[in-house]
Amino acid sequence: MSKYKIPLFLVIFCFLLAAPLLVAQVETKYHSPAEVAASLKSLAGKFPEISRLKGIGKSFGGQDILVLEIAGRKNKSEPEDRPAVLVVANAEGIHLPGTEAALQLAESILTDYGQDKAWTDFLNRNTVYIIPLLNPEAAAAYFSKPRQERTFNGRPVDEDNDGLVDEDGPEDLDGDGLITTMRVKSPEGRWMIDPREPRLMKLADPKKGEKGEYLVYTEGLDNDGDGQINEDGPGGVDLNRNFPHDFEYFQKRSGLYPVSEPETEALLKFMFDHNNIAMVINFSTENNLLNMQQTGQARVGADRVRVPRQFASFLGLDPEAEYTLKEIVDVLKSSGFAGGMEVDESLVATFLGLGPAMNLDRSDQAIYEELQKEYKSGLKEVGLDYLEKRARGVGKGSLAAFAYYQYGVPVFSFDLWQVAEPKKEDKKDELTPDRLRSMSSEEFLSLGEEKIAAFLKDRGAPPNFNATMLIKMVQSGQVTPARMAEMMEKMPRPAGATAGEENPEAYLLAYSDNVLKGAGFVNWKQFKHPGLGLVEIGGFVPFIKYTPPADQLQAALRYHVQYSRKLMMKLPVVSIRETKIEKLGSDLYRLTVYLQNDGLLPTSLAQGRRALTSYPIRVSLRLEGKQKLFAGRPVELVSHLQGGEVKKLEWTVQASKGSSLAVRVWSNRVSPVEKMIKVD
């Protein structure tokens, strides 16, 4: 017997050593903050003619925030003088695929310059700025031990108002390298074990007769002895809640005030220093093409409001009377006071100080809806399984909200990947009273033990009444399917087991079981807690929602990198479509110029015009020598051009035959164009 002990021990020992290696091999590789910086430096070094790496600031913890500038050099203008696209990734820190998408997008753009004519032409007239990691301190938590999800930077915050900061954070009590969940039985508990799936917890609903039995905590101790657990951990401020639009005041995770953090300040300073940015692509947990829900609804203090006296008298309204927002909108539209601006209740609420704008402008929404169709069609074509119901819209104080509502440019946020919905059995196979009533005993038995067991579990049968027992009862004739149907109709289903009440985390557990082979969930185990007594530790592995397997990640990245490039190509491009010179008299001519927007997107969004952050198009006529302008202005301003729109401009000039007139078209977010027109 003893001669087998050493080999067996060695086999087990070697297996235990190999186990972490096996996990590491199947785990998707993500870039740590240091590796992100190294990758950017490598790309800038490999493509020095068209790329430059710059630091725009530092995180609270002192890490560099880097931007890779990409611009073709076959153009006399500087990169900052051309229309630009800004790509920002992972402001939340937990969205590691976003960083990978930004890095792959950068490499794709650089590699194709000089190889793809359309893309080369694009880079010769435009600039792309890429910031792959805005929140390095939060992202570093994925690469640390123990692993814990965090969305906040390194700023110390006194979250429990005890005069101390970061003194009570989580601990890895069971030593598995993960920060998961603790549950402990308590008469004060509001949580219960889900009757459908005992691995999951759910909030008890007293209206349904449910009673809470558990308190739930993040894994850890009461380090400061205040009776609370993990209420004041390391950090920080959630950067994607720290931007100015619809900022949540008095929420510590949002920061003391808008743009209180060095990371968000660095980004906004960069954006305002580069007002050539015409589009923002944001890789984050939000997806505003699948879910166009904005930050909320305009906050109106009452159903009826008063108009300030100086404006009321101008509009012919009584300053002492109260009006609905709709009534004020109607008055503004009929008075001509709006000056062609799209006026709605959201704008009026903002104007009256009732709250920030929170709805897409109507004309902008039409653009987003068209792009949504294209995006969804593309997802379907490549087989990416997305659910709109789980897509997050634009959040309060987020980068996406600021970029659209205040910076005034189109912004597209992509979450890149979602945990797929588990495949459900066809409803025709569901065992209902009607179906059972029509079944013979043989048909029921042919379902098999697995389906019968699932049927019993779904109906909330007691544990001692199992599939084996029911099969024997049917085989012996003790019960028939018709009799079971009668019993089902009389027996109420238990709380939590009715149709439509599936645990909101059930899909995650199915994903862990079926795709990750159980690696996404830590089964509950008892632990002797020094403060709480006997507890159970378990739950979902950190980052399960955001870090797909390698094959799924690469499929999602490929599609979104290509779609992001496709979006960039939709930037407005103003051209001088046609010019005409008509002789009106001796040395007197009418010059007609037709401008056209050859891009899909407008030269400015309606929201940009509303926020007064979009410049009009300047069309200047340059005269030389004895040339004189008789009609028209030296500089004409064109508010905007929709995609494909043509605008006619006219001047009357005195010029000698054979001379030339110069027309220049320019805006900060449109490529400049010049044309010399010969007077014939």
Write the layout of secondary structure elements.
Blueprint: H1 5-26, H2 33-46, E1 51-58, E2 64-71, E3 84-89, H3 96-112, H4 117-125, E4 127-131, H5 136-139, E5 181-185, E6 191-193, E7 201-203, E8 214-218, H6 262-273, E9 277-283, H7 309-315, H8 325-335, H9 345-351, H10 362-382, H11 399-405, E10 411-414, H12 433-437, H13 441-445, H14 449-458, H15 467-476, H16 481-490, H17 506-514, E11 521-529, E12 533-540, H18 550-568, E13 574-585, E14 588-597, H19 606-610, E15 617-622, E16 628-631, E17 635-638, E18 646-654, E19 660-667, E20 670-678
Parallel strand pairs: 3-4, 3-9, 9-10
Antiparallel strand pairs: 1-2, 2-4, 5-8, 5-12, 6-7, 11-12, 13-14, 14-18, 15-17, 15-19, 16-18, 19-20
Helix pairs in contact: 2-3, 3-18, 14-15
Detailed description of the structure:
The protein is of the alpha+beta class and 680 residues long. The protein folds into four domains: 1-156 and 236-298 and 356-419 and 545-569, Aminopeptidase, CATH 3.40.630; 309-351, no CATH class; 427-490, no CATH class; 574-678, Sandwich (Immunoglobulin-like), CATH 2.60.40.10. 30% of the residues lie in helices and 20% in strands. The protein has 19 helices and 20 strands. It has helices at 5-26, 33-46, 96-112, 117-125, 136-139, 262-273, 309-315, 325-335, 345-351, 362-382, 399-405, 433-437, 441-445, 449-458, 467-476, 481-490, 506-514, 550-568, 606-610, and strands spanning 51-58, 64-71, 84-89, 127-131, 181-185, 191-193, 201-203, 214-218, 277-283, 411-414, 521-529, 533-540, 574-585, 588-597, 617-622, 628-631, 635-638, 646-654, 660-667, 670-678. Strands 1-2-4-3-9-10 form a six-stranded mixed beta sheet, sandwiched between helices. A four-stranded antiparallel beta sheet has the order 8-5-12-11. The termini are far apart. The model is unreliable at 1-26, 297-302 and 495-500 (pLDDT under 50).
